Fold these 2 entries.
Entry 1:
Amino acid sequence: MSPVQVRRAAIVGGNRIPFARANGPYARASNQDMLTAALDGLVGRFGLAGERLGEVAAGAVLKHSRDFNLTREAVLGSALAPETPAYDVQQACGTGLETTIHVANKIALGQIECGVSGGVDTVSDAPIELNDDLRRILLRANAARSPLERIATLARVRPGHVIPSTPRNAEPRTGLSMGEHQDLSTRRWEITRREQDEYAAASHHKLAAAYEAGFFDDLMTPYLGLTRDQNLRPDTSVDKLAALPPVFGEREGATMTAGNSTPLSDGASTVLLASESWAQERSLPVLAYFVDAETAAVDFVHGDEGLLAAPLYAVPRLLQRNGLGLGDFDFYEIHEAFASQVLMTLRAWEDPVFCKERLGLDSPLGTIDRDRLNVNGSSLAAGHPFAATGGRIVATLAKLLHDKGSGRGLISICAAGGQGVTAILEAA
Amino acid sequence: MSTNERDLLLKVANHPVGKQVLGRIGLPRPAPLERWQPGRPLISGPVLLGEAPAGRLGDAVRKVLAEAGSDTRSDPGTTERFKGLVFDASGISGSGELKALYDFFHPVIRRTLPSGRVIVLGTPPEEAGAVPAAIAQRALEGFVRSVGKELRGGATAQLLYVSPGAEDVCESTLRFLLSPRSAYVSGQVVRVRPVPDDLVVVPDDWDVPLRGRVAAVTGAARGIGAAIARTFARDGAHVVCVDLAAQGDALAGVANEVGGEAVQLDITAADAPERLIDHVRTRHGGLDVMVHNAGITRDKTLANMREDAWTAVIEVNLAAQERFNDALLSSGILRRPGRIVSVSSMVGIAGQRGQTNYATSKAGIIGMVQALAAPVAERGATINAVAPGFIETDMTAAMPFGPREAGRRMNSLSQGGLPVDVAETIAWLAGPATSGVNGQVVRVCGQSLVGA
């Protein structure tokens, strides 16, 4: 076996479309439409029209069965060369970061010179499936050997069968929605309503400031008339957020509202990765390098761990492998599924008991400097089209590191199914 | 869109029945204008060349026409029709000799083919030396402008003043004026002046005169800007397409179509010049052509105009360009032979009710190219402007019927121009071979009556 040379994968840049609220301006756009638009914006930004890239990896969490080859179809509809291969990845909210890991690893191993990672999701154009009983009857009728048998089979259709089965944001094994799960964790970690609202308001204010500074001018391409994330409320305040009613969990002591939880959203994002030589040949910038990644999962079904707690385990393993401490980062990007998920993460890593009993550490993992956390806002303000969040975060962090000119950043994304995807980037 | 789809009269006038009807009721009968396509000859028909005695430019014209494979004649014959009528009047040194114009054009002017070209070459009056020569050379303008108004069938007339010593740098201009690239340019006076030897550039292939050039075009997402990007790409340039972030969607579409790049940038931002310069330095090591096309209108009569309507128009259409030019020149990013081309407007020449802000900004563009011509030339570059007349765009399509029809017809070609006509003119001025044209304003207006 020939030795494998490992090299650094560079992040050249990114492009996303502004994120829209569910049933908003993108209500009639499909996943394929949005992913194609995000890809075309990326191609335009880096002058890649007609180029054959190593691969495009992307995915969606909510997918129609017709989208069995979503990313490849988006590539075929884009300005990229049709000879660019593509594939879909699906790892819930971790999809966007997971695709980045795939592409970065292939570049590191020299299997490809460049590639695009990304993700897209729509809850406005979500698939609606046939009622399962009706589906079985139709399948059986289709397989019938005689017309009579077919008619007899179809005669079993009942009025109740016309009610379709719609996708739910719920865990199949617990029946609880993600918000209901996080409500349990919020109570366990005693995250107050006030803390959550303060955190959420800050996310909006930071994202608004980033827009004002033109930070997204080279990270975003408008789509269907939307030029900014629709969910962004620059003028929101702790007081305004405090007026919202809780929406998850038992009413008594409930703290999670529509304001301190991410809204359902539509959108797409992409990231361009390459070997240094590929970028250099084209005089393209290198914003940051992809250093390492770690994915973890927790047993939230049988154990007592929270659904969104997997990053708590992934990050310590990632730090240990890279010989780093929690404080060794200039920027932290923790996906804001819920304000309480971020606050719980910070609290757990400061907690000696959790760190000893669950992480096996002699002392707490550490404290994150809040001034370095999600400095340009995150999902609470921007919105969270599930698979598109990873690409948004990777491109944002890469640009932050580039603007600073040095240092490293940590990404942590919690995902359904008790999973967490984390990664380290380093300034170029 | 290379044909004029928006003009109903143009369609009717070129239908056998419609043509007769329009003739009887006295409506103008606009002719379809021939437009250039890659691979087409420079001029698609015989050219008659005439020379007044002691002319300096006959050889230059013959050389261009020969290289272009054109059928050049000196004998008008009696029935032959011509695509081009070219007359070298540079040797005319007194008003008595102007009769040579009559003698050459009178027998053949009616034999001009559709989309024909009339070109008179002269010596700039200010360089003619003796007073009688200066007078006679200045008189050529009146002749050419009148011929432009008499020509039919989409033919145009231009006056090209070539300074002594500039005979070897007038080729790109001659080619532009002879070819269908100048479809909507008529009644114009262009001056070509001598340049240092290293700025005399001859492209390897005149079909792609911008090959290897990096050009930034502002306002490239739509309309005339998008046409500039397409035309530049067709002519071989790599186009950096610039527009507001809000136009990013359409901008990426244009950039991908022309194989260029999209840069989302608000040109009025304080750091905009620096950001564009950083971009082209990183990606291309420099810039060859800057096209200032982005512009806005905020129309109101002066009495009704809000302060922000005034400020925004001046800022976008003029002040931002000044800042870009300062930065381009001080940064040294513009490679020899650099080109700056700005879009002015017929309104900047003539003025327009309800457009005090716009006309001020567009007249300022004229001042800008005139004032910067010398300092720009010191850096081996040129700066020029085009002044479009009525161009068929989404903006003019939204005008009320009356003003729109008036705008369309009040010119020698009885029709509006297309965005590509403006783009072709800018591409000529942006060409590395057009070093001799500097500090000038060329109208793309079909010889409009407005401001002429």
Entry 2:
Amino acid sequence: MIRSVGASLEYSDHGRQVFACRQVDLTIRTNEFLGILGPSGSGKSSLLYLLSGLKIPTGGDVFFEDQSLKTLPEDQRSRLRLHNFGFVFQQPYLLGYLTALENVMVALPDQSLREEARDLLEKLGLGTKTHRLPHELSGGERQRVCVARALLGRPKVIFADEPTAALDHTNGAQVVNLLNQNRGEGSLVMVTHDPTMLEQADRIVHLNDGVLIED
Amino acid sequence: MEATPAAPKQKSSRRAILRPMAATTYLLRNSGKTIPLIGVITLAVLLVCGIVSLINSIPFSIRTIYRYTQQTLAITPRGDASQTPKLMERIKEGSPVPIERMVTARAAGSQVMSIVGKWPFAVLGLKQEDMKFWLDRQNVRSIDGRLPQAGKAEALISAPVARNLNLKLGSDLLGPDQNESYSPYPVKVVGIANCDNWLMLTSYEYIKANHFPDVDAVLAFAHNLKDQEKLDKWAGNAFKGERAQIFAYYQLEKQTNEMFNILYKILNVVIGTLVLVITFMMGMLINIYQTQRLVEFGLLQALGYTKRQLLGRVLRETVSVVIFGWFFGVVAAYFLLRLTKAVLMDPKAFALNIFDPTAFVYTIPIPVSILIVATLTVILKFRRFDPVSIVERRLA
């Protein structure tokens, strides 16, 4: 479904060229749970941004269903993300002026998905808190709202960038469980430095200094 | 981590579900920011509309007070009182439009109050047979009291004059102890005409017997009121350089425009500066508010919203704020001017147009310039914007 071919991400740091990712060849298959494991600063998040089209590779290319993300104009790349990908970030980013339900509906501006959004919150144990604003929710609840947002519209791929980083182990494991159990036919790509969070993964790849080492 | 500050607590059970990406959602849920923005625009529009309307009320007052001259052409001989019949003959022969009537009249001086001080006003002396025609020409609907009698120290005034000078039936319009409205005998008000024009009328015979100069003026009325200006302008050219002085409404308009030309230039500078200051202030406020929303924009862009969609959303929000601010400003200005008119202007019959179109036009640069500045601010912000820096917490 997603294929990176020699994808590299290089940037300049005070005049010095640094590789965040170096010639990564990786395929994400349909319906698989792929874990990307690596220590802090190994380039895990950069790889996730390359695979999801948030960053453009400086070398090589990334393909989604055989469409090059590198050559796709920015607007089309954005639309592709909106309609095919779901995201969960390290921090539970929510819009402070929107309720939990509205925050979930941000994922797809389609009012017909309101019931699906409500069902997702119900499934994630937030059925009684759909009308609450983010500041009225705990950290774990907020991240669960983010999970619901990522799942809305049944995206083809869900990208989770250290979704447990801001949570304790119990809440973190719960978030991973919820993502995995509710992703349906979608693939799940999760970046983490904690191997215990990838116990349910179908496949785990390791990243070290931007270089991919497949298990 | 919340992308933007949150709304007040403890309302979750009653909170309505809104369309999350609608412009109104942000505005409604962030009233703490929306209301001050709308308030500033409202006050600016109110201020500009109020200033322009009040300034415009001065020339408007001049036109209103002397509007009665629109109905007639007045000519007086200069230096030779015997010229009056010849002037009448010249008008009869040369007029480009049919003449309804020509009468001889006399005038004494009086004064009326305006918002910028006292202005001279003529007490017209007409013969009995001409009074009715004159009053009909001035669209007098009815008269409380009666017409002044020939040779008697009596006067008729119109309702606006009565309000302006606080005169009633039996009051003195002119008198020996009134320095600015002198007459050797107290001239009593015996009639008040109900009409919109400002009028002071006494008998021809009384002025001839008691006032200088001993000169008859000619009043010439075009048959068709629409032709009066044509007659006035013809007379202005025909008697140029001759021993005759023309008094016509078009001259008054011209003089008024010339008189206020400089004032309007100053007004334009003041309003321009005001718009500039308000726009600058609003630009800064909008810039601060948009900067506070960078996390929101970063998140939305990361999720898949295009920069164009986000820009469109911010512009819709700004347009809503600007339109509401302008609308409330115009409504507030209307009510303030209405109050001003009722409390300050109407008791003295001062003219104030509360629907002054110029005043409303002057307010348009405020929303337009704010919209332009807000748009440029947001475009510049989005140009250098990287959503990854937000979701990576580099800017969060």
